[in-house]
Design brief:
CATH class: Alpha Beta
Number of helices: 6
CATH superfamily: Rhodanese-like domain
Structural class: alpha/beta
Distance between the termini: 52 Å
Strand order of the largest sheet: 1-5-4-2-3
CATH architecture: 3-Layer(aba) Sandwich
Largest sheet: 5 strands, parallel
Number of strands: 5
Radius of gyration: 15 Å
Number of domains: 1
Helix content: 25-40%
Length: 138
């Protein structure tokens, strides 16, 4: 018998959606070339390899986002201290809703996510590029 959850994933997503900005995909596509905007791809590396990604997006795996955003973390990434606007996305906007809510609660701003995720981005004709090759340490 499966364990009964106190709160299921859909309730978590619904709660997150109440307090975050969700960009319509057309609005997100219009921001693609804005130098004040950073697109953040939260998907697993295998998804990037299989499906591509928004050209120029920064890859931040969902499991590391809180650590990469926090300047007090030993894993902090300077891009999150840039003062730019962050547009998060995943495949279907579930992980991005949760991540957007979480980093917003931590104090990262401005941050939003794309309605429908990368799937909607592709269907709307948004640009798609290959996952960049990882730089080898020298």
């Amino acid at each position: 018998m499966a364990a009964k959850m106190k709160k299921g994933y859909q309730a978590l997503i619904d709660e997150a959606m109440e307090g975050i900005e969700t960009l319509p995909v057309e609005a997100a596509i219009a921001l693609h070339d804005d130098p004040g905007v950073v697109f953040v791809d939260l998907r697993d590396v295998r998804e990037l390899e299989r499906e591509g990604m928004v050209p120029g997006a920064f890859h931040a795996p969902r499991g590391m986002i809180e650590f990469w955003v926090d300047p007090d973390s030993p894993y902090h990434k300077e891009i999150f201290a840039s003062g730019k606007r962050f547009v998060f996305y995943c495949h279907a906007a579930w992980r991005s809703a949760l991540a957007t809510h979480q980093v917003q609660e931590m104090g990262l701003a401005p941050v939003c996510h794309i309605a429908g995720g990368f799937d909607a981005w592709k269907k709307a004709g948004g640009p798609v590029g290959a996952k960049p090759e990882r730089k080898k340490d020298s």
